[in-house]
Specification:
44% helix, Rossmann fold, 6-stranded parallel beta sheet, 429 residues, alpha/beta, 2 domains, single chain
Amino acid sequence: MIGSGYVGLVSGACFADFGHDVCCVDLDQGKIDRLRAGVMPIYEPGLAELVGNNARAGRLTFTTDLSQGVVDAEAVFIAVGTPSRRGDGHADLSYVYAAAKEIAAACSGYTVVVTKSTVPVGTGDEVERILHDANPDAEFAVVSNPEFLREGAAIRDFKFPDRIVVGTEDERARAVLTEIYRPLFINSSPLLFTARRTAELIKYAANAFLATKITFINEIADLCEAVGANVQDVARGIGLDNRIGSKFLHAGPGYGGSCFPKDTLALIKTAQDFGAPIRIVETVAAVNDARKRAMAKKVVAAAGGSVRGKTIAVLGLTFKPNTDDMRDSPAIAVVQALQDGGAHVRAFDPEGIEQAKLVLAGVDYAADPYDCVVDAEVTVLMTEWDAFRGLDMDRLAAAMATPVVVDLRNVYRPDEMARRGIAYTSVGR
């Protein structure tokens, strides 16, 4: 497993738990040392135990030496980062291509090289060319096997997947991947074989569609506020239609995280390059960017039209609960907009504070939710962590300078807040 980040580490640990021998490779010596010591580089429920159990059993090892991990491997998974490239928004494939060159030099015998990183259509073709050029005598097949893991539920998603997509037309590679995933067949997980370019596009199309659902319900939420309707009832009313489904119809401050923002931009760029622009996704990305700053305006309005000189408490910073991931979190844009308006921001997150410190300057980080709201003029519920679902709202209101709450995740009910004398603003209600 080349790359011991989110995808590589979770996938490697799960493969090892199936009984396979897995070697996770990473260039970061400090990360490898911490993994060997049982210290996880990310927060993911259940991951530390899964890694520890399989490392002690000898099925899961860690190294910085790529050749050590590749030389005897029947399959080599590329699971390195593909961040958005500065300037044009396209996926930065430099890490993928660098890994391919190193794999070519290290592999022996027939090897299946599997791209698990999210990559634009045609990347597998280039990886194949790099392998051939670097080692013309090597015998290999290049396969696309995109991941569909949700942060916070990644282990379950890996072990109980909706589908496993494998892009290859090579029969030997198909047999290898079938054997690797065979432990999942008892769960009747559908193994979908396609052409390689089709598999590459499936990942982007799936994420773009989900991002579109989120953006759609967020715009419906704005309409609900304008006409006096309730977006939660609208979402339920349309979600019960099995052609639509209820998932990803929760109004909020916009999508973020490691996948949706960069993958929608990469799909937009790919479609433009091939002369087949996807206008819907272009609009989705633009609307989502604007929404984050619009949520800050909602806070300013709740504060009486200005936040200058006021203390604003923010509960939750990560883009979703059960992760410490701050990448493209809506909280970043909201906090920075409030700071631009002259507010002093105090924040608390159950797992994301250390990551937040890397991207948010000038924020006072609190020890717990109640410490966070002391003397605050407005409290903003930004991320729907379980720890925020059952807060003692009377205690929270008493600690604030003024009992004003802006709930950007619709965790609480307006009638309950009104009974407690809290001025309450939510989304689409």
